[in-house]
Amino acid sequence: LRSVLPALLLGFLIGSYNGRLAVWKTDDPEPYRVYPCPVYLLPKRERAALMRGIRIDSMEDVADFLENFLS
Fold first, then answer.
1. What pLDDT, on the 0 to 100 scale, is given for residue 27?
2. Could you give the CA distance from residue 2 to residue 54 in angstroms, rounded to a whole number?
3. Whole-prediction pTM value?
4. Which of 15, 45, 50, 54 is 20 to 30 A away from residue 26, measured at CA?
5. Distance separating alpha carbons of residues 3 and 7, to the nearest angstrom
6. Interstrand relation of 12-17 and 33-38 (parallel, antiparallel or unpaired)
7. Sign of the torsion formed by the C-alpha atoms of 11, 30, 33 and 49
8. Is 41 helix (H, G, I), strand (E, B) or coil?
9. Distances (CA, A) of 66 to 1, 45
10. What are the tens digits of pLDDT across the range 2-53?
11. Beta strand 54-56 pairing with 33-38
12. Collapsing DSSP states into helix, strand and coil, what is residue 38?
């Protein structure tokens, strides 16, 4: 089941797409990248944050965030 995420003005949004961790650019309806990380394996708090969507300003910040988020 595909998650509905809020539209972005600029930057990136991290969320869930078909049960996997994904990143969207600007207001593109399709993910920019989908990662092999199943969201259900993450702790409840992180899953809830992903379902709301996490806004990030730059791809460098996305990489840093994902490194910290998944460790």
1. 74
2. 16
3. 0.76
4. 45
5. 12
6. unpaired
7. positive
8. helix
9. 22, 15
10. 454 444 456 899 999 999 999 998 778 899 999 998 999 888 998 899 889 9
11. unpaired
12. strand
53 near 64, Cβ under 8 Å? Answer: no
Tokens of 62: 């996305």
Tokens for 1, please give them. Answer: 């089941």
The pLDDT value given to residue 9:
53
Distance separating alpha carbons of residues 23 and 25, to the nearest angstrom: 7
Confirm if 8 and 55 have CB atoms less than 8 A apart. yes
What pLDDT does residue 4 have? 47
Token code pair at residue 44: 């409840």
User: Identity (one letter) of the amino acid at 57?
Assistant: D
47, two tokens: 């899953």
